[in-house]
Amino acid sequence: xxxxxxxxxxxxxxxxxxxxxxxxxxxxxxxxxxxxxxxxxxxxxxxxxxxxxxxxxxxxxxxxxxxxxxxxxxxxxxxxxxxxxxxxxxxxxxxxxxxxxxxxxxxxxxxxxxxxxxxxxxxxxxxxxxxxxxxxxx
Length: 138
Prior knowledge:
Blueprint: E1 5-10, H1 14-27, E2 30-35, H2 42-49, E3 53-57, H3 65-75, E4 80-85, H4 90-98, E5 101-106, H5 112-122, E6 133-135
Parallel strand pairs: 1-2, 1-3, 2-6, 3-4, 4-5
């Protein structure tokens, strides 16, 4: 099967983004694109790449993260959006749910295993087998 899972990471911390990319590619047949939260053409990049899973660091996107989430979902309803955040207030997580966010991960407590298990939970089929490392140029 030639299917690759497409994962986009939006985070201003490039080191963190590449760390996530590396462990995702070690565990899944996937291609990963990393963007900064202040990219001018973020929606265009999203449309061109058309990710299956999107990790959005809320702090990197500043106050635009809710609008970004709405726009991404409008472009591709089946994208699995995961917010990376340090805020766990009930009204915040309810807003995430209302916008169609799969879940919120705490950046302070995020582990490679928690991310891997989350991706496996979202895609419970044979498409997430380990595969070749492929990184898209950012």
